[in-house]
Design goal:
The protein is 23% helix and 43% strand. By secondary structure, the chain is α+β, with helices and mostly antiparallel strands. Strands 1, 2, 3, 4, 5 and 6 form a six-stranded mixed beta sheet that branches. The longest helix has 19 residues, at 6-24.
Amino acid sequence: MKKTPIFLMVALLLAIWAKVAVAAEAADYSSTIEVFRSSPVVEKFFDNSYGYAVFPLIGRAGFVVGGSYGEGQVYRGGAVTGKTKVIKGSIGFQAGAEAFSEIIFFQDKRAYDEFTSGNFEFGATAQAVVITAGAQAQVGTTGTGAGASAGPRTGVQADVDYVKGMATFVHAKGGLMYELSVGGQKFTFEPL
């Protein structure tokens, strides 16, 4: 019996995951924003940020080689200024699939301009804050920020601030993924 190359299995897994993710949830920006706004640690960023990018659903899957993909919108002053996409590739010890929402706050015009320049990338050392209790502790390459959280309704929140003009938060939606890998998120921006 001929063995199927591992990259074909990963490609099939990612294709199936992408179809499920798209079918499972339409881009519901208002409810995603409300989920993040309901977290006390995130709420202050809505009041003091220059703008933000919202991704209602990012799907991630992998087995040794993995990837993630999501589509979102960028806001400034409460108005949509463009569309954005995120893609991440990684290689290393990983297995599984998961879905999560993500929001990236821009502290000032410089950070907003950097993100909306067309192609922006978070490095492998970037971090995100998880806002749901019991969610994955490993989100090291999915954004930038600092801190920890036990959940939006527990009252136990760490103090979080901008790092290099950006703060990123994720909200786990489902799935199970174990990952110890290298890679970073890459974003594209298309103005409206």
